[in-house]
Here is the input.
Amino acid sequence: MNKVELLSPAGNLEKLKIAFAYGADAVYGGVSHFSLRIRSGKEFTFESFKEGIDYAHSMGKKVYATINGFPFNSQIELLKKHIVQMAEVEPDAFIVAAPGVVRLCREIAPHIPIHLSTQANVMNYLDAQVYYDMGVRRIIAAREISLKDVTEIKKHLPDMEIEIFVHGSMCFAYSGRCLVSAVQMGRVPNRGSCANDCRFEYTLYAANEDHGTMFRLEEEPGVGTYIFNAKDMNLASHVDEILKSGAVDSIKIEGRTKSPYYAAVTAYTYRMAIDDFYTNNFEAEKYQKELATTKNRGFTDAYLIHRPFERADSQNHEYALSKGTYEVSGLVTEDEEHFYCKYKTYPNEDIEIFVPVNTKIEEVDNDIGKIYFKDGLYYINFKKILTETGKELDSVHSGNTNKIKLPGRLPYLTMFRVEDKMINE
Here is the structure.
């Protein structure tokens, strides 16, 4: 049995490295407006994207390049140049949504495998066969698909790889095919500039056209007016069912615009779930506890296991985004001897250490502080807060860009986190 691939988002070079450090086998990201996420795509230049690909290949890992926007006629010549440039940085696949762009990629860069974006909305083996005949070798299934239908596609097309989303933001529309933002804000979601209008709080009105009356509907306090807002997908508890099906080749995490901490926790958790499945140690509650530390809109297990019309809990009408149960307070630098403060750090405070996979920590106790193991977790406690130049501070906050000395070496990209007491009270 081939082990399923864990695919994480990479909005920039730092997040790419974090995803790999915390367990991803592959990442996806893009450059320019031909990627579905314009804003996050701008964080990659061709140079830094190439650097990320080289970094991944040095570790035996993969990078898939997103060219999954829907181009207008006026952009086609520019798109051709973009495909040439993207092929030159040697990604492991192109993620493409439009049939015409699939054909264009096959003509311009036939050596680059094609993965079909979820935006193509493949739900059955007939459509899958059409794309397979066009040269597509992996389908990223529509988020509304059932595991039963995924299995049926695999049965008819055993050589077609199938990738499914297991975690992240859910779109109000069918597999992201939404134009609400385009109508209201002039920002076209399917070209990467969604304004997230479905996340807004709306005021509701009732009108009668016969006599021209209109009045505002008063909502009961606490009910909320986030009428389009979808909860976030979270299928961690179903990873065992997904892997048992034998039909899924890659599980995918949404979130190129999410935080570095989100990239770390989601990769770490789904890596743990996958590995636990193969060693018969699957524990759904453990994964949910870890994922709850990230910011989210509430979680739903969406439609892979349940049919859409059976669901009554996939929308969050109360708020657009909540805090996670933890705040990130630091990120260890590449020299492994310092960290950057991301929240606030005080002396004599126990801070949990969140460490990349397959790394070791040595306990220390010296004048700067101590690193120690307690109740199954590692912690750091600073006796002194010293900058790289030796200046002592009473405390350090996220606005301070100085490197802060560690009492002992910690792996690059290790994170510090503290429990948000307001959330957990």
About this structure: The chain has a mean pLDDT of 89. Residues 238 and 284 are 8 Å apart (CA to CA). The chain is about 25% helix and 25% strand.
